[in-house]
């Protein structure tokens, strides 16, 4: 026999549909809590909570949680129910007596101050405003194209002198980030797009810093050496991502850095050692090393597309390289 029980108390109603609704609530709570849950009412409807309390006490159950299914703290709550136990505080176990028997009671607060209740009511009201008002687009391609057209317009407003290709690359980066503030933070060196397109046309491999970037690129020659980089990282005292770049960048490859500033720094170092790098796309985020590494890349003269500042992320790098791949697949590129 459990030592606790839950009694739901409603105001009560003579309407059967009300009782049916509340029975469903009681069943739900009993299944979730795995303790006996009794539905009761303050007036109009049986069973009355007073009778259930008496029955439970007679069965030896003297710890009762009263779940008050009232919206606000009216007289029924304060006077009729809690007053019967000389209790004034919610959500605390209190010792009391009822009909001469000792009992411990716990009263839940009424529902009006619950954010979940407010939210549920909001959504139900909101349907009256939203019904028939919004023309939702469900086709994924149409959603993407509408969004891209909106971003293209914003890019053209802010940077009116861009070429078509530059606008598309920036728009894709903004699309991936969902942040229009990035429009003037994506740097494209003068030769970056043309060199990148030519490199893709001759099927040059793409080397990535992390597997997440590798997984998102729509190209049949994408390389990542992170799994093989542990030993070299220990030997040289560098990060695994930097070591993976050193393993992979022994011949010209497009490099896409979406996450690791140290991998980007290694690309610049390897380029200074004599390995040609036709294009670097660099969007690593962060407050340490990221800004400095990206600015060093711009100064290096390597053809590059760079998201400056602390902004960044793998998805942005992936979206930019995929845009170049998309261009190559079109006629005329």
At CATH's second level, what is the architecture of the largest domain?
Answer: 3-Layer(aba) Sandwich
Number of domains: 2
Poorly predicted ranges (pLDDT <50, ≥5 residues)? none
- Proportion of residues in helical segments: 40-55%
| Gyration radius, in Å | 33 Å
What is the total tally of β strands?
A: 11
Structural class: alpha/beta
Straight-line N-to-C gap: 78 Å
> What is the residue-averaged pLDDT?
91
Query: Which range does the strand content fall in?
Result: 5-15%
CATH homology superfamily of the largest domain: Cobalamin biosynthesis CobH/CbiC, precorrin-8X methylmutase
Largest beta sheet: strand ordering: 6-11-10-9-7-8
SSE string, helices as H and strands as E: EHEHEHEEHHHEHEHEHHEHEHEH
Looking at the structure, the CATH topology of the largest domain is Rossmann fold
**Level-1 CATH class name of the largest domain:** Alpha Beta
Instruction: Give the CA-based shape.
Output: elongated
What summary fits the major beta sheet? Answer: 6 strands, mixed
Number of helices: 13
